[in-house]
């Protein structure tokens, strides 16, 4: 068993992502461009691109925008040259926070991220200060009531690393990062559709926050996620409503 309110937190996060769907287009397009630049424009031989395109489809990004983002990465269309940077720090109650960015101006990006931390009760730390608290992995969350035994059999056969049943009845399938899409597609073929899925930095230990602290932490996450250069915000926090 793992986690105590995983389902509520996933539903909350999914809802907030849906609210930001418009802004997600530009972030996903950026990720597609970088993935295509690094590994080529063929999804069959570029797991990162395959994942980015899957993410684009999940927010209903038009096919022409996906294709144009790939072409910018492969050089067929002119595009901006982005670099990847990660910033680490602490939120409310000492919760670990990692912020992954794609930027064409690191000076601007670090200033914006530091300002967000400082203004909303957190503080930026040094490189590596919290990274050791996270595991890079694929994560698929299935609703309470899902047939646990059948899902476990299908997940293990598909190559998943682990299957965890949470206290609230939701089931979490954990994969290696590059196996995420393969496992997801195999489970969908077996009629198991995840309510939420991503390649993420999964916290090894969680920090529970309630009341005002939870609200302040959510504000910090929202402000960080709203920054144009920020792609993903990972945190160890579990927000109790």
The tally of strands reads: 10
Shape assignment: globular
- Number of contiguous helices: 8
User: How much is the radius of gyration in Å?
Assistant: 18 Å
CATH-wise, what's the superfamily of the largest domain?
Answer: YebC, transcriptional regulation domain
Helix/sheet category: alpha+beta
Mean pLDDT, to the nearest integer, reads 90
Described by its quaternary structure, the protein is single chain
Walk me through what this model shows:
- The longest helix is centred in the first third of the chain and has 19 residues, at 21-39.
- The two termini are 22 Å apart.
- The chain has a 4-stranded antiparallel β-sheet. A 4-stranded antiparallel β-sheet has the order 5-6-4-7, sandwiched between helices. The chain has a two-stranded parallel ribbon with strand order 8-10.
- The chain folds into 3 domains: 14-74, Arc Repressor Mutant, subunit A (Orthogonal Bundle), CATH 1.10.10; 85-124 and 206-240, Alpha-Beta Plaits (2-Layer Sandwich); 133-203, Alpha-Beta Plaits (2-Layer Sandwich).
- The chain is an alpha+beta fold and 241 residues long.
- It has helices at residues 6-19, 21-39, 47-58, 63-74, 106-119, 148-158, 180-189, 211-226; strands at 83-90, 96-103, 123-124, 134-142, 162-165, 171-175, 196-203, 207-210, 230-235, 237-240.
């Amino acid at each position: 068993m793992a986690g105590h309110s995983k389902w509520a937190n996933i539903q909350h996060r999914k809802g907030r992502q849906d609210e930001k769907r418009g802004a997600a287009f530009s972030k996903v397009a950026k990720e597609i461009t970088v993935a295509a630049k690094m590994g080529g424009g063929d999804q069959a031989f570029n797991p990162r691109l395959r994942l980015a395109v899957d993410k684009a489809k999940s927010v209903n990004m038009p096919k022409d925008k996906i294709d144009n983002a790939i072409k910018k990465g492969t050089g067929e269309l002119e595009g901006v040259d982005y670099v990847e940077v990660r910033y680490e720090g602490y939120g409310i109650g000492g919760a670990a926070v990692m912020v992954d960015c794609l930027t064409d101006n690191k000076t601007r990006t670090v200033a914006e991220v530091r300002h967000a931390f400082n203004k909303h009760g957190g503080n930026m730390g040094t490189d590596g200060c919290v990274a050791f608290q996270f595991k890079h992995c694929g994560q698929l969350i299935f609703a309470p009531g899902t047939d646990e035994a059948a899902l476990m059999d299908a997940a293990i056969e598909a190559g998943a690393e682990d299957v965890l049943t949470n206290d609230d009845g939701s089931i979490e399938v954990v994969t290696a990062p590059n196996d995420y899409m393969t496992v997801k597609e195999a489970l969908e073929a077996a009629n198991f559709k995840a309510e939420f899925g991503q390649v993420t930095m999964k916290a090894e230990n969680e920090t529970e926050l309630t009341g005002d602290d939870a609200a302040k932490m959510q504000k910090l996450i929202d402000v960080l996620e709203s920054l144009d250069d920020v792609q993903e915000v990972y945190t160890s926090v579990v927000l109790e409503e």
